[in-house]
Amino acid sequence: MAGMKILGWGSAHGDRCVSNEDMKQYVDTSDEWIRSKTGIGQRYFAENKSNLDMAAEAGAKAVAHLTPEEKSEIDGLVVATFTPDMATPSMAAEVAGRLGISGKVMTLDVNSACSGFVYGLVLANALMSSGFRRILLIGSEKISPMMDMEDRRTCVLFGDAAGAVVLEADPDGEFEHLEGTEPNHDILWCDRFDPNIRMAGQEVYRFAVSAVPECGEELLRRAGRTVEDVDRYIFHQANMRIIRSAVRKMGISEEKCFLNVEQYGNTSAASVAVALAECLERKEIKRGDRMMAVGFGAGLTYGGVLMTI
Ligand code: ACO
Question: Is Transferase one of the keywords (predicted)?
């Protein structure tokens, strides 16, 4: 099916860099445990920034790549997040206000935890097939206030960040997608009124090491592509071991797989967004390249896209 081009990109993160050593002030842990189990070396906490601040910062950087005319033709603004600052208005409407985007633009939030940004790409592509022209898609999370800082099994894993892209309909582009949900409330959740993330880590791990490569392989089959046809792989940056396992199972060359989990930890819906923005910024992916992005998370959900950019 027809695809999308990326016209602009940007990212932002929390204002306080917290190393694994720093995490020892909260819980009994070590740099060695965190690195060997997850690949995480540090994360950012947004102490003096709201989720909206980070989303707007990333969004403004993405929009700065556009001409004023292109900016005036943004007709969709979607924010993927499970940690909005407010129940309403939506983060998307608030970002529109910050960026001076108004008028005939649809603004909405997507809540699908770590699959959120990939689902946002699917949604954006579907909207374009029904006439939308240009969509600002942001993945943004402020997870630090949702963490139990006395639970070492979870608090070392997450961080705060935002990533954004401006997408434009591309009739010559390629787009394949796959989504799935295996409802399970009990192994990963966060109650709105008792906002501490709870997770049965090993069960999420088991889900992810099969869901990610299965999703990737099915995407290749559907698109009639081989693993070598893809220029860049971006998996949800939750855990280096999960990513390495998918890379091994799928037979991907390691240098094609983008990694930044060491710098940010797991930033949920922001993870694939930040990785994609960093890839573009460093010119590690360019116009016309084919990329695969796969997310997974609470729900449990998973989703992937295989697209030219
Ligand atoms: N520092 C030191 N020791 C720790 C820490 C820590 N931060 N956390 C746990 N431990 C200890 C435990 O207490 C336990 O010790 P015990 O046996 O004496 O009780 C031991 O380490 C092993 O704990 P497990 O929880 O069994 O460790 P596991 O090998 O499963 O690794 C991890 C935990 C890294 C969380 C792993 O299960 C994992 O990566 N799961 C997937 C999680 C994930 O990807 N979540 C995100 C997806 S969804 C989303 O992003 C919202």
Answer: yes
Q: Which structure tokens are listed for 117?
A: 């940004």
Tell me, yes or no, if 266 is annotated catalytic. Answer: yes
Question: Residue 214 in contact with residue 250, Cβ under 8 Å?
Answer: no
Catalytic residue among 125, 215, 236, 239: 236
Decide: 244 in ligand 1 pocket, CB within 6 A. no
**What would the mean pLDDT of 150-173 be, rounded to a whole number?**
97
Q: Mutation test of ligand 1: which of 29, 202, 240 has the most ligand atoms closer than 8 Å to its C-beta? A: 202
Q: What is the pLDDT of residues 11-30, one digit of tens each?
A: 999 999 999 999 999 999 99
Nearest CA to ligand 1 atom 11: 153
Q: Is this prediction's pTM over 0.90? A: yes
Which range of residues forms the domain containing residue 276? 175-308
Residue 114 annotated among the catalytic residues of the structure: yes
Q: Which residue has the tokens 């390249």?
A: 289
Residue 272 beta carbon below 6 angstroms from any ligand 1 atom: no
What lies within 8 Å, CB to CB, of 302 at 6+ separation is 115, 179, 180, 211, 212, 215, 294, 295, 296
Same domain, 198 and 154: no
Is the shortest distance between the CB of 154 and ligand 1 below 6 Å? Answer: no
The whole-number pLDDT of residue 193 equals 84
Distance 274 CA to ligand 1 centre (A): 24
Query: Structural domain tally of the chain?
Result: 2
37 lines ligand 1 (CB under 6 A): yes
Whichever domain contains 298, its CATH number is 3.40.47.10
Q: What is the pLDDT of residues 205-237, one digit of tens each?
A: 999 999 999 999 999 999 999 999 999 999 999
Cα 280 to Cα 293: distance, rounded to the nearest angstrom: 14
State the Cα–Cα distance between residues 212 and 214, nearest whole angstrom: 6
Query: Does a cis peptide bond (omega within 30 degrees of 0) precede residue 300?
Result: yes
Its ipTM equals: 0.93
